[in-house]
Amino acid sequence: QSTSRIEIAESNDELTHLSNVFNDMLDKMQKYIEQQKQFVEDVSHELRTPVAVMEGHLKLLDRWGKKDPEILDESLSASLQEIERMKSLVQEMLDLSRAEQVEIHYKNEKTAIKPLVLQTVNNFKMIHPDFVFNLDDAVDEEVYVSIYRNHLEQILIILLDNAVKYSTDRKEVHVSIAVENRVLDIAIQDFGEGMTHEDTERIFNRFYRVDKARSRHKGGNGLGLAIAKELLLGYKGSISVESVLEYGSIFRIKLPIYEEESND
Ligand code: ADP
């Protein structure tokens, strides 16, 4: 999916940085998909042989084994052996799939929220001049969250990118930052396709895409929101969505505010 990569021609530090973060993300997703594909291929291939061997033996049994104790014994023990092989294969595959999951390295650092959101939104303004981005940031500069800066940026990019990607005629995105009960709340609202209530419960699953036919030509692979959710959970945060089909969606992320270590 090299077509959806962002290429920045002029030298612009912020945009270059944004495009690097974005392209890294795409590369990781691409790698992940390749791994999954390879995995499914391997499983199918590895399981085909024991299944074919067992089929042969069962056919033999069916035709002659009922009357021939020698064939009966041999085919039974060969089939049981193949079953053992399949069992250990399945276990191996499971272990492999767990091990191959892209690992996230969580890193807690004191990150100022307001400038990061502001900068990310400004970058999107530059990349999508046909869109209106509103930012309601009624919080002070001193709001911090304990999160690796690049991870928060990655989450914001996923949500802003979706807001743009699944928009319809009304090309508007509203972003708001608020703090309530020491919890940071960032909401990203669009006025695009929206989705049904059923879909809101599935979109955070890996590879899930609403209406595959419609979303296919928009690029993407159904991993963005799953990654955003996994990242947020690692920082004791959460993500949720409210959506109305054909009206739009609000994605909301919550993260606990950074607490200075107290000495008492
Ligand atoms: P991708 O966008 O690559 O398909 P995501 O995990 O980011 O993967 O999103 C999963 C699915 O959720 C999308 O395919 C789309 O159907 C739906 N979706 C995500 N964001 C929005 C949005 N802002 N408006 C409508 N649908 C959305």
From TrEMBL:
The keyword Membrane applies. Its EC number is 2.7.13.3. Residues 1-34 form the HAMP domain. It comes from the Bacteria. It is an enzyme of class 2 (transferase). Residues 42-259 form the Histidine kinase domain. One of its GO terms (molecular function) is ATP binding. Keywords: ATP-binding, Kinase, Membrane, Nucleotide-binding, Phosphoprotein, Transferase, Transmembrane, Transmembrane helix, Two-component regulatory system. The keyword Transferase applies. It catalyses: ATP + protein L-histidine = ADP + protein N-phospho-L-histidine. Its main location: membrane. It is a multi-pass membrane protein. It is found in: Membrane. This is Signal transduction histidine-protein kinase ArlS. It comes from Carnobacterium antarcticum. The chain holds residues 247 to 510 of 510 of the full protein.
